[in-house]
Amino acid sequence: xxxxxxxxxxxxxxxxxxxxxxxxxxxxxxxxxxxxxxxxxxxxxxxxxxxxxxxxxxxxxxxxxxxxxxxxxxxxxxxxxxxxxxxxxxxxxxxxxxxxxxxxxxxxxxxxxxxxxxxxxxxxxxxxxxxxxxxxxxxxxxxxxxxxxxxxxxxxxxxxxxxxxxxxxxxxxxxxxxxxxxxxxxxxxxxxxxxxxxxxxxxxxxxxxxxxxxxxxxxxxxxxxxxxxxxxxxxxxxxxxxxxxxxxxxxxxxxxxxxxxxxxxxxxxxxxxxxxxxxxxxxxxxxxxxxxxxxxxxxxxxxxxxxxxxxxxxxxxxxxxxxxxxxxxxxxxxxxxxxxxxxxxxxxxxxxxxxxxxxxxxxxxxxxxxxxxxxxxxxxxxxxxxxxxxxxxxxxxxxxxxxxxxxxxxxxxxxxxxxxxxxxxxxxxxxxxxx
Length: 435
Known about the structure:
7-stranded antiparallel sheet
C-alpha cells in the first residue's frame, strides 16, 4: 500500500499518541514490543532491525578556515599513525595606542610575547623551537572572509628572532622572544620622529606587513597553543635627574580575523598516504580496517548504508520509522595516550563528500569504557536523515553521512579518533512501528 507524505505523517502522529497512552501496559518480547492486550487486534507493535551493513571511509577536507579562532598553534608532531603534522601561525601587528618618545629616550630592546592558552598536543617534555620571520606581503582574506589552513604568505627567509624552549602549556608563563635590534631600532626611530609608516595602522601594515611564527621542523614533540594576547613590546629608557626609567610600548595584534594557522601534514609511510582530496574517500579496507578523524588537518569519516534500500519495501507497506541510531566504536587500545574527542557532529554529504545539510543532523553521545576500552562508543540519533532518505521511496546511493569534530574543535585542536570497521563494526539500529 502506498501512502503519500501527508497521510504518512498523520498516521505516524496517531500511532505515537496511542503508544504514549497505553505504553505502561506494554509487553516485551525479543525484537518486538507489543502495545497491550486491547490493541492485539490491530497488531500495532514496535520492532527493531539492526542488521544493516554500514561502511566507513576516511575523508580529508579540501578547505578549512583557521582564521579568527583566537588560538595560535605552533609546533610539530610525528607518529606512525597520522604521520607528521606541523602548524605555523601568521598575524598582523598594529601601532601602539599611545606613544610619546622624548629626545633623550634611548632604545633598549624589542621582544615578541606569547601567552599559553592551556592547549597542547603531544609530548611537552621535549624541546620546541619557534622562528620569527617578517612578512613581505599583506595578509589577505579569502572570498569567504576567512583564510584556509593551507594558505601561507611569503616572508623573509632570514628570521628576526628565535627561541628554543620547554613548553609549560598549563602555566601562566609568557614566552619572550628577542627580536633583532635592526628591526627594533627601526621601529623606535620611526616612533620617535613620528615618521609616516607609524602615523596610522593602514600605513604601518603596508610597511610592516606582519609576522610568520614558524615551528622548528627538527623538533617533533608537540604542538602548543597560545592565545591572541600577542604583540611586540618596544622597551626604551628615559633618564631624568640621575634616575633611569624604563618605558615600554605595545605593538598589538591588529586584526584577529587575519590571524590564522597554516597546518601541513605528511602522510607518507602511513595508510593515509592514499588520501589525495576530499572527493576521493579512503575505504576502511584500504586503511587497516579502520577510519580516522583528526582536527587541524581536517580528517573526517564518511558513513554509507549500502543495504538501506532493503527497508523500502517495509516503508511502502506502511511501517513507520520511530527512531534510527548509529553507533561507531573507537578501535581498542587506540586512545590510551590521547583523549577521545568529547563529542562529534554528523552531516549529510553527496557523492563528492561535500556537505549538503545546512546544520548537523546530530551531535554524538560518548559512552566510554575506561577500564577495558571494549564498549566505548559514539551514538547518534539520525532519525531525521533516515526518514528523509526514505521519504520518496528511493535511496540515493551517492548520499551519505560525514562525521567530524565540532567546528571549533576541528579548527583549534588536534583531537583524534580511530574508528573500528572490522572487530567492532559500526551499527545502524532502526526502530519502527508495524500495525
